[in-house]
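JOB MANIFEST
job_type = single_chain_structure
chain_count = 1
residues = 517
[input]
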Amino acid sequence: MKKILLIGIIIGLSGCAALAQNIGEEYRRQFEAYRQQQQQAFDAYRQQQQEAFRAYEESIRKQWEEFTVQAKVNMRLRPEPRQQPVRPEVVNTENRLMPVSEVMGSVSSLNRKAGGNLDDDIPEDFFDDLANFLEDDSEPAPEPEPAPKTLMAEAGNPAAFQFAYLGSTCRVRMGKDFAFTLNGVDENCCADAWKLLSQADIKALSDDCRALKKAMRLGDWGYLGLLDAIGKAYYGNSDKSVLFSFMMLVYDGYQVKICRMDKHLALMVGVEETVYGYSYVTIDGLKHYILNTDEASECYVVNLPQSGGTRLFSSALSSVPALAYEGAPSREIKVQDKDGRKLSAKVKPNRNLMLYYDALPRTNQWNYYVNTSLSREAKYALYPILRREIDGKSEVEAVNFLLHFIQKGFEYQTDGEQFGYERPLFGDETFFYPYTDCEDRAILLSILSADLLGLEAVLVEYDDHLSTAIRFNEEAAGSYFQLDDGKYYCCDPTYIGAGVGESMPDYAEKSAKIIRL
């Protein structure tokens, strides 16, 4: 009996081994088929890429078209008051419907939640963990974990080239195949260089660059800066760097062109919104803003094939970029309430973030500045202190406190005095530059009221002033705007001493443009 059982076991094991071998062979056949399929797909993609690049090469080799360059236009300098206006002791506080000329945008889809709109950089229980801190003003708020200073597109990448971008050391797959010769900037020289560069492994580099863009939460303009940093690190500050950026942006499907100006190459980008501070050329009804160059009266532009990219650039940001933290000088905001109690908050901005914001083009799309919100560094330093002050207050009382905080905590100066030109500030920049004007304060109040109270705000624009109006979930009084979704009460963070529902007398009869956020 035992012999029979042993023989059965041996036969069974032999069968299992044979089965395992068959399964292994089948797996290898499937894997090989999959590998061949992937290789064929890659080869087809590579062939398609080469054909598209050959079409570009032919276009580059043809005579470039001459265009007249339109001189750059700066933002209109808003005629704001030289001195910050102060509310008189006696004011009319009766309910008053304010006139509206137009409403821009639709009801917000940001789904702000009451009690704080915290992004992924701050845990949801952040304020609960600070109970002890809130009882003692002497302790500094805990600092957030800094963004990594060394970034790779993906863990384990055979990263061959290293470069620096706004405090971070980045690595991408960019080998010797990206080296090329550019003997001049005429049509044939550029076409020859394009042909050489198109042989490089652009897909791997593009994958790495787009992964870095996502990891660092860069907008389109930040992506331009990233490619510019790579190009200058690899080729130096030269026309080769411009041609490299052009090819990468073409590969990524952007609406981009290249032109020759004063014997040098320059990038031209199609942008969704109107931006200021760049000269431009209008092609097929679209303004193409010129980068990497000084002023010139004319330029010569490549007539690209119809298969060119259609993705327009935008200066908008969906969130604050995640950049390596390098502390700038601390900014202390001091205010005193009606009872003489003093409040102090210190914010230490991220210098790399300030450099990023400073490189963005100027635009009067005010919602861009609000929707970007504040950085985690600013939130960690500021929000616990503000939350302590507004906890237990009604919505109107809490907004009155935020109004007082901004009205008295930030020194006022017009952009003309501080910069010599119109320069709206992102939320974090109000803690970096010494002065703020009306639009900077309106932007900051809109951010704070949404993040800390979950309240819906709109911006109120006049020819010479920008303010805020807020919709409350409780009774309020004073001047208001009637919109489709309810009453929005005037909240002016520039008008010293003014509370909810109070606006400057000069604007009582003026029609305002309402900008939804």
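[summary]
Residues 109-142 have pLDDT under 50 and may be disordered.
The first strand starts at residue 65 and ends at 68.
exit_status = 0
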